[in-house]
Amino acid sequence: MKGSVEPALERLVEGTVMFHVLQPDRDDGVSRALLGMSIGDPTAERVARAQLQYEQETDWQLLGYAPAGSLLGSIGFQITAPDETTIRHIAVLPPYRGQGIGRKLVEHLIATRRLERLLAETDRDAVGFYRRCGLVITSLGERYPGVERFGCAWARVP
């Protein structure tokens, strides 16, 4: 990946792992590309609509994992209550998949938001990822013709 996404980011440091709050209206295209990877049937219109949601809604936020300033993955979420968040988008650049970046994003989100509950909706392809992150999976049935969707939920154990 060329260049750095540094101008578009507010730096947050947790140990040696770099997490960044992404500003989709000021990025170099990488966060937009990651957003597109996390949308089913990612038309330009659907990606633009999602990007606009993050730009305009204060309860929708994008967080990126960018060690050494190179954005490798992102997680988009909606704050639904002070201690509850719903994952709306998550993606890792293809060459970096399977290296734990998605899990780091989920774990960082839980820790920094001090969540009691984390929710997501996904397709069959991502069920294993969410299960490995500790979320409980429930079938939501066929939400779209021929497409089974799954609800994913994590709750802090008292």
Task: Write a structural description.
- The protein is of the alpha+beta class and 158 residues long.
- It has a domain at 6-115: Gcn5-related N-acetyltransferase (GNAT) (Aminopeptidase, 3-Layer(aba) Sandwich), CATH 3.40.630.30.
- Helix content is 25%, strand content 39%.
- The chain contains four helices and eight strands, in the order ββααβββαβαββ.
- It has an eight-stranded mixed β-sheet, with helices on both faces.
- The chain is globular.
- The model is unreliable at 1-17 (pLDDT under 50).
List its traits.
158 residues; eight-stranded mixed sheet; disordered N terminus
In short:
With 158 residues, the chain is of the alpha+beta class. Helices cover 25% and strands 39% of the residues.
Biggest sheet overview: 8 strands, mixed
Main sheet: which strands, in order across? Answer: 1-2-3-4-5-6-8-7
CA radius of gyration? 15 Å
* Ends apart, CA distance between termini: 43 Å
Secondary structure tally: strands: 8
CATH class of the domain at 6-115: Alpha Beta
Q: Per DSSP, what share of the residues sits in E-state strands of 2 or more residues?
A: 35-45%
How would you spell out the order of helices and strands? Answer: EEHHEEEHEHEE
Give me the CATH architecture of the domain at 6-115, please.
Answer: 3-Layer(aba) Sandwich
* Average pLDDT: 85
Give the CATH H-level superfamily of the domain at 6-115.
Gcn5-related N-acetyltransferase (GNAT)
Kindly identify the CATH topology of the domain at 6-115. Aminopeptidase
Number of helices: 4
Question: Which structural category fits the helices and strands?
Answer: alpha+beta
User: Which regions are unreliable across 5 or more consecutive residues at pLDDT < 50?
Assistant: 1-17
What is the share of helical residues?
25-40%
